[in-house]
């Protein structure tokens, strides 16, 4: 739909959310975040019909980052930490979320991608944290999610220098799962999502909850967290076991 900042398309249990401001490299304006939040809340309430989510950007870039022009123009989010809370909503969705990244993925958009569970990079992908270039400091999660994704040594290097990491390098440092040619990005991401939704959605939701929750603990407490919070077999276990070997 013309004028829609985030487009949602559902197919075979997969919801694809597309940032739809290609003329501004999908810069993250407050109004875009409002639309994104609406979609995420609807998906969060639909765990029985949506098993996996893809987050992508229309055009030549995933997103150039926070929209400074929108901020200068007086566009504001509904609350002080609305963007950070929206990223937390992504991280806490019941469903696995895959970021498909081509072109720019700078600062705020890198924080957005880091809130996703998995990441497929195109060869054109360019990742950077440019907070230092503008004398800004992170409030959307960069200082916490980036070190957890790639380790504190590499995270500090990216944050201190602002250097650009290519799509190929993003895989080697553990930022992305895979790097593919640009013209294969959409299909590769869809194929990964399709592979995911073939498995028990009950298990997918449990795995995400247990991994994310366990990361907040040391190993011993994390093991206890798993024992105390694992929801047990899903309603589809008997059906799946009955098909074993067939």
Please describe what this structure looks like.
The protein is of the alpha/beta class and 246 residues long. The protein has 2 domains: 6-197, Alpha-Beta Complex (2-enoyl-CoA Hydratase, Chain A, domain 1), CATH 3.90.226.10; 201-242. Helix content is 43%, strand content 16%. It has 11 helices and 9 strands. Helix 4 (108-114) crosses helix 5 and helix 5 (142-150) packs across helix 6 (152-161). The longest helix is centred in the first third of the chain and has 15 residues, at 30-44. The model has no long low-confidence stretch (mean pLDDT 96).
Give the key terms.
single chain, 246 residues, alpha/beta, 2-enoyl-CoA Hydratase, Chain A, domain 1, six-stranded mixed β-sheet, three-stranded mixed β-sheet, 43% helix, globular
CATH topology of the largest domain: 2-enoyl-CoA Hydratase, Chain A, domain 1
Query: pLDDT average, as an integer?
Result: 96
Structural class assignment: alpha/beta
Count of β-strands: 9
The termini sit apart by: 45 Å
Shape: globular
Biggest sheet: strand arrangement: 1-2-3-4-6-9
> How do the helices and strands follow one another from N- to C-terminus?
EEHEHHEEHEEHHEHEHHHH
Considering DSSP H and I runs of 4 or more, what fraction of the residues is helical? 40-55%
- What CATH architecture of the largest domain do you see? Alpha-Beta Complex
CATH homologous superfamily (4th level) name of the largest domain: 2-enoyl-CoA Hydratase, Chain A, domain 1
Number of domains: 2
Number of helices: 11
Unreliable runs: none
Question: What is the beta-strand fraction?
Answer: 15-25%
**In CATH, what is the class of the largest domain?**
Alpha Beta
């Amino acid at each position: 739909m013309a004028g829609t900042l985030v487009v949602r398309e559902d197919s075979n249990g997969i919801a694809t959310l597309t940032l739809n401001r290609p003329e501004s490299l999908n810069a993250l304006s407050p109004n875009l975040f409002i639309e994104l939040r609406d979609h995420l809340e609807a998906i969060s309430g639909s765990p029985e019909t949506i098993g996996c989510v893809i987050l992508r950007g229309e055009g030549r870039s995933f997103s150039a980052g926070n929209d400074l022009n929108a901020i200068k123009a007086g566009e504001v989010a509904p609350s002080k930490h609305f963007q950070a809370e929206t990223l937390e909503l992504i991280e806490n969705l019941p469903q696995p979320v895959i970021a498909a990244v081509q072109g720019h993925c700078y600062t705020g958009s890198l924080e957005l991608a880091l809130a996703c569970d998995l990441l497929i990079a195109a060869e054109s992908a360019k990742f950077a944290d440019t907070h230092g270039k503008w004398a800004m400091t992170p409030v959307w999660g960069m200082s916490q999610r980036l070190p957890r994704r790639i380790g504190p040594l590499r995270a500090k290097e990216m944050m201190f220098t602002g250097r650009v990491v290519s799509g190929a390098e993003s895989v080697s440092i553990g930022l992305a799962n895979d790097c593919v040619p640009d013209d294969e990005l959409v299909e590769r991401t869809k194929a990964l999502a399709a592979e995911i939704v073939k498995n028990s959605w009950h298990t997918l939701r449990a795995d995400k909850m247990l991994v994310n929750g366990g990361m907040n603990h040391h190993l011993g407490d994390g093991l206890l967290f798993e024992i105390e919070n694992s929801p047990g077999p899903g309603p589809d276990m008997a059906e799946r076991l009955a098909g074993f070997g067939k």
